[in-house]
Amino acid sequence: MGASRARRSIRIPAALVFAGLTASACQTATTAFGPDVDPATGSAVNIGSLSSVISQNPNSPDAYNVRGSAYGKAGKLRDAIDDFDTAIRLNPSFYQAYANRALVQRRLGRTDLALADYNRAIQINPQYDIAYIGRGNVYRQQNQMDLALADFNRAIALDTADPRAYHNRALIYQTSSRHQLAVEDFSKAITMSPKNAEPFDGRGLSYLALGDYKAALENFNQAVKIDRSSFAAWTNQGIALERLGDRERAFAAFAKAANLNPNYRPATDGMKRTSPSNRQRTT
Q1: Half-sphere exposure of residue 108, counting CA atoms within 13 Å on the CB side?
Q2: Same domain, yes or no: 99 and 136
Q3: Which of these, 176, 102, 174, 183, lies nearest to 138 by C-alpha position?
């Protein structure tokens, strides 16, 4: 990251680099799905260590960018913005810092500022896939699906190693009922990052729409295996079981979801449909 001059001015311990220096670390802080991030990234110990590095290298944009990512992971968004501001002031061509600041601006609800930062990152480095993915997410949240799709396509054309490009493009395909294309993209995301529950859940929903209830159930089973706190995945598992005629197990899945989130209507409605009393009336 950053200019070669900045790289020579600082030597960050390897453990800290792994925790915070990667461009995707801050990028994934609030996305529903992304590469695995070391949970120590936003820890007080890690931030303290990074502050020590900065005190020894106060003119290093890399150091501020790393600590800004750690602050973002810790939810200290104002501190993160301050560090990214400093990194950019020290190195105005630091496109990774622009993209990282854009994500924090988005978390703060400042979408115009986020778009401006992503645009600047892309202007500096048109090959920077992370910025296209981030900007595509902003466009998708604004329901500008054509612009979002173009950005995800661009990231994929750049041979991105970030599975979010495929995952988020799949979500767009789902909104337009192109479920076979969604399945293909979710599958690619799963291959790239198999420990995330979200693409399994998403692929299961597309299989449901395609009428392949067994494949849907397999995906929902995997989603809840990875993330047992996902009430949405438990609910979707219940729907697949209900479609397959296994109302008893469907009720158990809906009940699990409702226990996790008593206000989630799809789960409570599913419990009503598959309750023992309803099963007796329908037999």
Answers
A1: 19
A2: no
A3: 102
**How many Cβ atoms from other residues are within 10 Å of residue 13's Cβ?**
11
- Report if residue 111 sits inside a domain: no
Range of the domain at 149: 126-190
Residues 6+ apart with CB under 8 A from 110: none
User: Domain holding 274: CATH number?
Assistant: 1.25.40.10
- Residue 62 resides in a domain: yes
153-204 pLDDT, tens digit each:
999 999 999 999 999 999 999 999 999 999 999 999 999 999 999 999 999 9
Has residue 169 been placed in a domain?
Answer: yes
Q: Report if pTM > 0.85.
A: no
Q: Are residues 164 and 212 in the same domain?
A: no
Give pLDDT tens digits for 224-237. 999 999 999 999 99
Distance of alpha carbon 3 from the chain centroid: 28
Give 210: exposed, middle or buried? Use CB within 10 Å, 0-12, 13-18, 19+.
middle
The token duo for 67 is 């600590």
